[in-house]
Automatic annotation (TrEMBL):
<keyword id="KW-0472">Membrane</keyword>
<protein>
    <submittedName>
        <fullName>Proton-translocating NADH-quinone oxidoreductase, chain M</fullName>
        <ecNumber>1.6.99.5</ecNumber>
    </submittedName>
</protein>
<feature type="transmembrane region" description="Helical">
    <location>
        <begin position="482"/>
        <end position="502"/>
    </location>
</feature>
<feature type="transmembrane region" description="Helical">
    <location>
        <begin position="184"/>
        <end position="205"/>
    </location>
</feature>
<feature type="domain" description="NADH:quinone oxidoreductase/Mrp antiporter transmembrane">
    <location>
        <begin position="149"/>
        <end position="489"/>
    </location>
</feature>
<keyword id="KW-0560">Oxidoreductase</keyword>
<keyword id="KW-0812">Transmembrane</keyword>
<feature type="transmembrane region" description="Helical">
    <location>
        <begin position="403"/>
        <end position="421"/>
    </location>
</feature>
<dbReference type="InterPro" id="IPR010227">
    <property type="entry name" value="NADH_Q_OxRdtase_chainM/4"/>
</dbReference>
<dbReference type="GO" id="GO:0048039">
    <property type="term" value="F:ubiquinone binding"/>
</dbReference>
<dbReference type="GO" id="GO:0015990">
    <property type="term" value="P:electron transport coupled proton transport"/>
</dbReference>
<feature type="transmembrane region" description="Helical">
    <location>
        <begin position="332"/>
        <end position="354"/>
    </location>
</feature>
<feature type="transmembrane region" description="Helical">
    <location>
        <begin position="265"/>
        <end position="284"/>
    </location>
</feature>
<feature type="transmembrane region" description="Helical">
    <location>
        <begin position="153"/>
        <end position="172"/>
    </location>
</feature>
<feature type="transmembrane region" description="Helical">
    <location>
        <begin position="129"/>
        <end position="147"/>
    </location>
</feature>
<comment type="similarity">
    <text>Belongs to the complex I subunit 4 family.</text>
</comment>
<dbReference type="GO" id="GO:0008137">
    <property type="term" value="F:NADH dehydrogenase (ubiquinone) activity"/>
</dbReference>
Length: 565
């Protein structure tokens, strides 16, 4: 019955998941007398935010999304729950959305965390209905980005996500909120403009924005010529690749005198341009400088959502666009990506040691963790030693599975840490670590919950953070052994950073000004916010198979692509 409903429904479940938050946004904005009805609006928005989560779980648990559907001889996992409608005929662009093993884990992350972030936003009192409406708009933009399979649509959602986050930081943030909001917007917009110009060139060379078609071209797989309408170059012929079509377009406009006659140069330039755009969002060193200011000055729920989900938009863009469209360039430049990953890992760890502000410390720890994500992506694409033989596919798939698991686990653990940091601020009026001390005696339940979040964040076995790190290192050892060995140092320093943070807050002499702080109590608001986060970290730490199954087949397909190059 459930499968029949999914199959024959006139509504695409994917579209409903992505766009349903907009209904809640409108209801929050038009509800009469928002100041007097703030409690009703807040609970109504929270209830509506459960709709996308319910639809996602419905697909997952009913079999409407089957992660085992993968074409091992093809270019990617099969796209499911597709909705495709002609959108902008002039640009040969469709409204094209769907789900596969590359985006479904992030759809789950987004739909699961947004209700928690909305619940955390109940402390917002000034124009609360507008704030909550912006949170739902942000959720819809992020979901639309993750499920889009046409670049124009993906870019539209990418840009839309900037607007609500800018206003959330600018209007409800901390002391330096305007500077942080401006910096966040400028950095991301600069990357966006570069990416748009590059894709305009790709469109002129191929005549399509379809990411599935472009990924087939990138991998040298046959494409129906009717799907392409190139404006430059010699057009598509049998055996043509995205790399060759880009070079043909460069020849057509007479740029070979500048770029040279190497067939791979235009593709390499496009590759690095795309990487930079997504590396800004992922906060890869040295493009990270917007991130600590943003995380520090955003309101608590804003810090939660931008660190837990928005940063993953950068990693997903690298997977869906950079890697799938340019596998040869990704493999060639994989050592450089691994070095940048290592720089992020070590910089995030050592910079975290120097922080005295709790939110900035968590921000630098996030830079460190996203470095592991980039290391995993580099491991997927890196050349494998011949001694690995048939194990090369398994090693690469392990790294890709680790990337997906790391993104989900980091999302839940860092959201918990930022929420608890916000609760400490509400109780003490400061984020300065030297103002705390001995709070384990004053708030034992609070200390226990933050301990679980902290250990999950640093990758303690039995908690979700361990799973992703383990699989990333398993894959990276096989293809990038030297870089991985050095990266272990970053793992050790990260543990020192987080344990030092925990000691400064909860151990040592009690600050006499903080002896009467209220603890978290079972059933109260703060407990209800943190409970689902802790449950997910425990469940996926002890039993990660359901999470790993979501991406395993897609990861295996991607691993085979690079093994066959």
């Amino acid at each position: 019955m459930l499968n029949e409903f999914i199959k024959f429904s006139d509504w695409s479940i994917t579209t409903l998941i992505a766009l349903s938050p907009l209904v809640g946004m409108l209801l929050a904005l038009v509800f009469p007398k928002p100041a007097e009805n703030s409690r009703t609006i807040a609970w109504g928005v929270f209830a509506w935010s459960l709709v996308p989560l319910g639809l996602t779980l419905f697909l997952w648990l009913s079999g409407g999304f089957n992660p085992a559907l993968a074409s091992v001889a093809g270019d990617q996992a099969m796209i499911q729950q597709v909705d495709r409608v002609r959108w902008v005929p002039f640009f040969n662009a469709d409204y094209f959305v769907g789900l596969d093993g590359l985006n479904f884990p992030l759809v789950f992350l987004t739909t699961a965390l947004t209700p928690v972030c909305i619940l955390a936003a109940f402390r917002i009192k000034h124009r609360q209905n507008v704030y909550l409406a912006l949170m739902l708009l942000l959720e819809s933009a992020m979901l639309g980005y993750f499920v889009s399979l046409n670049f124009l649509l993906l870019f539209l959602f990418w840009e839309f996500s900037l607007v609500p986050m800018f206003f959330i930081i600018n209007n409800w943030g901390g002391e330096n909120r305007r500077y942080a909001a401006f910096k966040f917007f400028v950095y991301t917009m600069a990357g966006s403009v570069a990416m748009l110009l590059i894709f305009e060139f790709i469109y002129l060379a191929t005549g399509t924005f379809d990411l599935v078609v472009l990924s087939r071209l990138g991998q040298g797989l046959p494409v129906d010529p009717a799907l392409l309408a190139p404006k430059l170059g010699a057009g598509y012929t049998s055996g043509a690749t995205l790399q060759s079509m880009l070079f043909s377009a460069v020849e057509d406009i007479g740029l070979t005198s500048i770029l040279g006659t190497s067939n791979g140069t235009p593709a390499a330039i496009v590759f690095w341009s795309i990487f930079v755009a997504f590396a800004v969002k992922l906060a890869v060193w040295p493009l990270h400088t917007w991130q600590p200011d943003t995380y520090e000055n955003a309101p608590t729920s804003g810090s939660m959502i931008v660190s837990a989900v928005m940063s993953k938009m950068g990693a997903y863009g690298m997977i869906r666009i950079m890697i799938m469209l340019f596998p040869q360039q990704t493999k060639f430049f994989a050592p450089a990506l691994a070095i940048l990953a290592l720089a992020s890992i070590l910089f995030g760890a050592y910079a975290g040691l120097a922080q005295i502000n709790l939110k900035r410390l968590i921000a630098y720890a996030s830079i460190n963790h996203m470095g592991y994500v980039l290391l995993g992506l580099a491991a997927v694409a890196s050349a494998a030693p011949e001694s690995l033989g048939d194990l090369a596919v398994n090693i690469r798939a392990s790294a890709m599975n680790g990337v997906q698991a790391q993104m989900v686990a980091h999302g839940f653990s860092t959201a918990a840490l930022f929420f608890l940091a916000g609760e400490l601020y509400e109780r003490t009026g400061t984020y300065q670590l030297d103002q705390f001390g001995g709070l384990r005696k004053v708030m034992p339940i609070f200390a226990g919950i933050m301990g679980v979040a902290m250990f999950a964040n640093l990758g303690l076995p039995g908690l979700a953070g361990f799973v992703g790190e383990f699989f990333i290192f398993r894959g990276a050892w096989g293809t990038q052994p030297v870089i991985t060995t050095i990266a272990v140092l970053g793992l050790i320093v990260t543990a020192l950073v987080l344990i030092r943070m925990y000691q400064k807050i909860f151990y040592g002499p009690v600050n006499h000004k903080l002896t009467n702080l209220p603890d978290i109590k079972v059933g109260d608001w703060a407990f209800n916010v943190t409970l689902p986060l802790i449950i997910v970290l425990l469940v996926f730490g002890i039993f990660p198979k359901p999470l790993m199954d979501l991406s395993n087949y897609a990861a295996t397909v991607m691993a085979q692509v690079f093994t066959n190059l």
